[in-house]
């Protein structure tokens, strides 16, 4: 079994496809990092103009003014307790930024690393997973090597299990690759910092209103681990579904086409069918699971973090079960 897994992993790692994926990630990170750098400069210029000070590149006066504004808002007796708690968290953040010399107006390497994955989790990450995983099974049919595999005295379930483990390895490598490229490039452009900066999390949405009762500030590196951990779960779900489709259709191109169509359909449902409760049970509507960390509104009312996590796990498990059943029963030589 271990030799099968080793053979599959080595076979995948030596393909050019992984290098192409690395190049795509690097180019996209460069593009986003440059765009964010330009946006940050424009933000500082506009803020300096609003505060009536000269934009000299010194961000401290701007942050100090924002801190004073927030402190003054805390003195307002008419704001709710939840809003007061939220403002207090922001005050603590600004105080930390000033103390540690971190410019919050410019996205640091830590914030960029986190934000890039948050923006990628809905489409870019699934697309890369599909590209890497589709031919793990269907590629064997295209190259006719499936016949050679089945002539060996190895149970079919072991063959598919080795490919499933390979998928897990690929998704893990992909997540690490995105984190490493994003952190490296953003450190060059924005400077290496902000990893210990406090970031609020624990937001919940109740009846359409943001609840900050359980909000706490945690170090940014912890939030990054949480974001990439959830992204890994999303990647595993997409990988399992892609593996299932590959087993069913035995063709790499068709498998990618089917998965892309499903993802695009999910995007349309998120916009046009969000008042239809049943769609919240579809995996496509639960991919953006990192939104729960920031308290963003979900596309369908009633969705919670535990609900979305459970939906993704159930879909992944069901896809794996179907894959093993079909692979063991079908005439794979046909």
Automatic annotation (TrEMBL):
Membrane-traversing stretches: 18-35, 121-143, 164-190, 223-245, 252-272, 306-327
Record keyword Transmembrane present: yes
Any single GO CC term annotated in Swiss-Prot or TrEMBL for this entry: plasma membrane
Pfam family, one: ABC2_membrane_2
Keywords for this protein: Membrane, Transmembrane, Transmembrane helix
PANTHER family for the chain: BACITRACIN TRANSPORT PERMEASE PROTEIN BCRB (PTHR37305:SF2), INTEGRAL MEMBRANE PROTEIN-RELATED (PTHR37305)
Protein name: ABC transporter permease
